[in-house]
Design goal:
This protein has 12 helices and 9 strands. Helix 8 crosses helix 12. Helices cover 51% and strands 13% of the residues. Strands 1, 2, 3, 4, 5, 6, 7, 8 and 9 form a 9-stranded mixed β-sheet that branches. By secondary structure, the chain is an alpha/beta fold. Bound molecules: NADPH dihydro-nicotinamide-adenine-dinucleotide phosphate and 4-oxobutanoic acid (SSN). The site of NADPH dihydro-nicotinamide-adenine-dinucleotide phosphate has 26 residues, from helix 1 and helix 4. Keywords: NAD, NADP, Oxidoreductase, Stress response. Belongs to the HIBADH-related family. NP60 subfamily.
Length: 290
């Protein structure tokens, strides 16, 4: 089946490659078109614009950085809306429910079908087809896309109306970002108080709060190595959007707010394109013992 794929960043490249490896015909587009070349080596075709991709394919998947990118690809000149009549559009980017609803309404008005489907899981799960897919919107399009979701992910959820996928994803990443900050504080506290942070990792791994993120990120954080799997600027975007969701629902979120400040500080230190675990650096400010 011919599917479109818009956005070949860390996630999009891995996901589109996976679809190609599993026999899908994929037409790709990326804002920086040169990034399509690697996918062509795996058998992809290239569309010159989002509109040409949508025109050619039964449905098109998007994996873009943030709300502004998601809106631009749909609404700008030569965008998705131009040829969406009768076609499906699946936005897997992490955005807020409002952005997703705007896109959904515009696509439906033009006779198209829309599904939001943000994902849990990062670069490696994307490469291994082990993502968790949080879909909402058009159920018929969800059913049609299941063969692709089965390749991209280990589990797909259908969460009902548009917005529920976006909200679920933001809640998950709000928790993840807060935990990453507590973890960074703990590593710094262990080191400053004379403990071995490597031993702390072993102790954590044997207890009730053992988790995949500590196991994966802990060793590289101890080496001050932050090669981006999940860029910090995107984690900060997710904290910001989750805090806005908290505002809308009058939910007090002091821990998430503090975590957001740390991610903002990390961005101001030039760490936005590093992995989100680089927030650890904000806890290493010069130390003055009394
Ligand atoms: N990395 C991860 O671990 C995960 C990321 N996510 C989410 O997935 C999405 C993509 O993440 P990731 O692949 O890491 O991000 P990257 O920064 O690696 O890629 C972003 C993509 O968006 C494109 N883009 C950015 N701005 C625009 C624009 N204005 N118009 C058109 N295209 C644009 C980029 O194009 P160009 O190449 O031209 O810059 C690139 O293809 C984000 O929403 C992120 O929050 C979700 C789960 C995990
Ligand atoms: O949005 C990014 C999520 C990263 C992860 O789930 O490991």
């Amino acid at each position: 089946m011919e599917v479109g794929f818009l956005g070949l960043g860390i996630m999009g490249k891995a996901m589109a490659t996976n679809l190609l490896r599993h026999g899908f015909k994929v037409t790709v587009w990326n804002r920086t078109l040169s990034k399509c070349e690697e996918l062509v080596q795996y058998g992809a075709s290239v569309g010159e614009t989002p509109a040409t991709v949508v025109k050619k394919c039964k449905y098109t998947i998007a994996m873009l950085s943030d709300p502004s990118a998601a809106l631009s690809v749909v609404f700008d000149k030569d965008g998705v809306l131009d040829h969406i009549n009768g076609k499906g559009y699946i936005d897997m980017s992490t955005v807020d429910a409002d952005t997703s609803s705007k896109i959904s309404e515009a696509i439906k008005e033009k006779g198209g079908y829309f599904l939001e489907a943000p994902v849990s899981g990062s670069k490696k799960p994307a490469e291994d087809g082990q993502l968790v897919i949080l879909a909402a919107g058009d159920k018929a399009l969800y059913d049609e896309a299941l063969p692709a979701f089965d390749i991209l992910g280990k589990k797909s959820f259908f969460l009902g109306d548009v917005g529920n996928g976006a909200k679920m994803k933001l809640v998950v990443n709000m928790i993840m970002g807060s935990v990453m900050n507590a973890f960074s504080e703990g590593l710094t506290l262990a080191e400053r108080s004379g403990l071995s942070p490597a031993t702390l990792l072993d102790v954590l791994d044997l207890g009730a709060i053992s988790n995949g993120m500590f196991k994966l990120k802990g060793p590289t954080m101890l080496q001050n190595s932050y090669s981006p799997a999940f860029p910090l600027k995107h984690q900060q975007k997710d904290m910001r959007l989750a805090l806005a969701l908290g505002d809308e629902n009058a939910v007090s979120m002091p821990i998430a707010a503090a975590a957001n400040e740390a991610f903002k500080k990390a961005r101001s230190m030039g760490l936005g394109d590093h992995d989100f675990s680089a927030v650890h650096e904000t806890y290493k400010a010069p130390h003055h013992s009394s």
